[in-house]
Structure formats: structure tokens, C-alpha cells
Write a structure and sequence with these properties.
By secondary structure, the chain is of the alpha/beta class. 42% of the residues lie in helices and 14% in strands. This is ABC transporter substrate-binding protein.
């Protein structure tokens, strides 16, 4: 009898240990190790709904995470830093175990993310690097320097700069100073264009060439339009404007509105070469219409899927895959990063890249 009791107790202890290691599902059945992570809350904090791409990114990630069984708390902060801080605080309070953060101001979240770190919460910076804290664990983005290079090379090719053509007039419109990505967008583009500015093939009549001079607060379309209005009035009432380096699509739309208001976009006064980034629907329509030359396409479906893979790894106590451990120093340390490759889209390839791939339908671009 003592042997039987001993065997029963031993079996009970073994089962308890197994369940403790593997967890149980909602029906009380044992699960494989790591599957209990599917009860994890993932907080997804996006900057705003006012830009198409953030809506897409948030929706893509929410669908993918929920399909894997995660509980998702998706919030949009409408470009208000205080709102984003409050939303992240609420995610922490609700028990989120992973935070995916597309920051509004990469330098304004260090305090709230220190609170997250204290709770053992892992943080993935999404497409915008979070600065000056070791509370961000990983960074997922596109190769942002390459974004700028692609834009610069497009202008270089279309103007024939390698063949010595010029001089041409160019202006520059970047993004906000509090978005660390702009450092790379601007740096990549100027790595191509600055030599031509230096040798006189490209002329910036406004004299505004630094990132600070060319900034567009909050990537705001109206801000971009207003600044370009002033540049045109002061410098291009009679002179031709051959190109405008626009760091993203909302900036490009603002520049287009400004140009059209003074007669650009006609047979006598064609639009200059205009770049962009994100391949937003309005901008692809502008490309088809000839109002915008190109946009840098970043397939956010791929970025969202990569982040979901990272969340899965974290939930299963594994190291997420990264492919860059040298580039993105946030002022505290070099954040382990995964970089995806961007590519340009213009009138020659938009159908194959955007429609054939299922990113957009033909009806969306009509």
C-alpha cells in the first residue's frame, strides 16, 4: 500500500511539473511549452490615423497578432505626445507584456518606457527609433538610409547628372526634427546630391539645404505647402524649378499643391521631378497623373509580419532575429535592429509592385 501511495504521489508531482512548464489552455488541457504566450497582451501604439500608412500598419499588425491568438491593444495618438504617453501608461496598467511603439517624438518616451522596463515589458520600436533609453529592446524598420539614396539616385538619373548635365534648380523638403528617421532619409539623399550641389550642377536658390532649414513639422502637408509657397514667391516667379526632394508622400502632396497654385503642371510649366515615400494611394494616383515622379515603396505588410515574428520570439523567451547591430545608436546604446529593403515605384512599375502584389486594387487607384 505504501508503494502504491508513493507511486501516485510521484505521478501527481510529475504532472504538476509538466503543467507548470507547459501551461494549460482555456479548456484546462496541457499545452506545449511557450504556447501560454498566446494569453499575452500586446500593446500597439501608433502615432496617428491622419496618415494612411499608420492606419495600414496598425491594422495589419492587429490582424496578424490576433490570428496567432494574442490579445491586442491598438491605440492611435493623433500626433499628441502626451496622448501617446498616456496610452502607453494604460497599456502597462492593463498588463501588456510586449509593446510595439511607433513613436511621435522619439526622445519623449524614455520615462514611460522606463516604467515598462521595470515591469519586465519588452519594447519594440516600430519604424521610428526611440531615443536615449535602454528600455527599448529591438527596432524594426526599413533601411532608412537607402530610402534617401533611392530618392537621390532617382533625381540623379532623371536629370542626367552623372553625364554632367546642368545646372538645375532643386529644393529640399524633409520631415520633423524629432523624427530620428529623417536623419537617415536626409543623409542618404544628400550622399548622392551634395556633390552635385558642391560642383554647381544643382542649385538650391533658397539657400535652404540643412535638415533644420528643410524640416516639415509632423510631416504636415499644409506646413510643407506653406513653406514651398514662400520659397516659390522668393525665388521662382520667373525661374524654372527642376526638382524637389520630398522625404515622404504627405510632404510631396503639400509641395504639389503649392506648385499647382502658381501654374505648375501645365504644358508650358511642367511639374518638376518630385520624390516621395510610402506609396500612399493619393500619391500613386499623382504618379499616374504625372504630378509626382516617384515614391519609395515600403511594403508594410512585410514589416508588420516581421514584428509579429519578433513578438512570437519574445513570448517564447527566444531572441528575435535581427540583421543589424551597428547602425542605430539611440544615444544610450546600439539597438538590435531588423532592416527591410525598400524600392522605388513610379509610372513604369506601379502595376507590378502595387496591384499585382495585392497591396492595392485597381479600383483604389482610379
Amino acid at each position: 500500500m505504501k508503494k502504491i501511495i508513493s507511486l501516485v504521489l510521484s505521478a501527481t508531482l510529475v504532472m504538476t511539473a509538466l503543467i507548470g512548464c507547459g501551461g494549460a489552455n482555456s479548456d484546462g488541457e496541457p499545452q506545449a511549452e511557450g504556447v501560454e504566450s498566446k494569453d499575452i497582451i500586446v500593446g500597439v501604439s501608433m502615432p496617428t490615423k491622419s496618415l494612411q500608412r499608420w492606419n495600414q500598419d496598425g491594422a495589419n499588425m492587429e490582424v496578424s497578432l490576433k490570428a496567432k491568438g494574442y490579445k491586442v491593444d491598438l491605440q492611435f495618438a493623433e500626433n499628441e505626445v502626451e496622448t501617446q504617453v498616456n496610452q502607453i501608461e494604460n497599456m502597462i496598467t492593463k498588463g501588456a507584456k510586449v509593446l510595439v511603439v511607433g513613436s511621435i517624438d522619439g526622445g519623449a518616451l524614455s520615462s514611460v518606457l522606463e516604467d515598462a522596463k521595470a515591469e519586465g515589458i519588452k519594447v519594440i520600436a516600430y519604424d521610428r527609433l526611440i531615443m536615449n533609453t535602454d528600455a527599448v529592446n529591438y527596432y524594426a524598420t526599413f533601411d532608412n538610409f537607402s530610402v534617401g539614396v533611392i530618392q537621390g539616385e532617382y533625381i540623379e538619373e532623371k536629370l542626367g547628372l552623372k553625364d554632367g548635365a546642368g545646372p538645375f534648380n532643386i529644393e529640399i523638403a524633409t520631415g520633423p526634427l524629432d523624427d530620428n528617421n529623417v536623419v537617415y532619409f536626409y543623409g542618404g539623399a544628400m550622399s548622392i546630391l551634395q556633390p552635385y550641389i558642391d560642383n554647381g550642377q544643382l542649385v538650391v536658390k533658397s539657400g535652404q539645404t540643412t535638415r533644420e532649414q528643410c524640416a516639415t513639422p509632423n510631416w504636415d502637408e499644409k506646413e510643407a505647402q506653406s513653406r514651398m509657397d514662400n520659397i516659390i514667391t522668393a525665388n521662382y516667379t520667373s525661374d524654372k524649378l527642376d526638382a524637389v526632394l520630398c522625404s515622404n508622400d504627405s510632404v510631396s502632396l503639400g509641395v504639389q499643391s503649392s506648385l499647382k497654385s502658381v501654374g505648375f503642371g501645365t504644358a508650358d510649366k511642367p511639374m518638376p521631378i518630385l520624390t516621395g515615400q510610402d506609396a500612399n494611394i493619393a500619391n500613386v494616383k499623382a504618379i499616374v497623373a504625372g504630378d509626382q515622379s516617384m515614391s519609395v515603396f515600403k511594403d508594410t505588410r512585410a514589416l508588420s509580419e516581421k514584428v509579429v515574428e519578433m513578438v512570437d520570439s519574445i513570448a517564447n523567451q527566444k531572441e528575435p532575429e535581427v540583421n543589424d547591430t551597428e547602425t542605430y545608436n539611440n544615444g544610450t546604446y546600439v539597438v538590435p535592429s531588423y532592416l527591410l529593403k525598400p524600392e522605388f515605384v513610379d509610372g513604369s512599375n506601379y502595376k507590378s509592385l502595387l496591384i499585382d502584389s495585392g497591396y492595392y486594387t485597381e479600383d483604389q487607384l482610379k
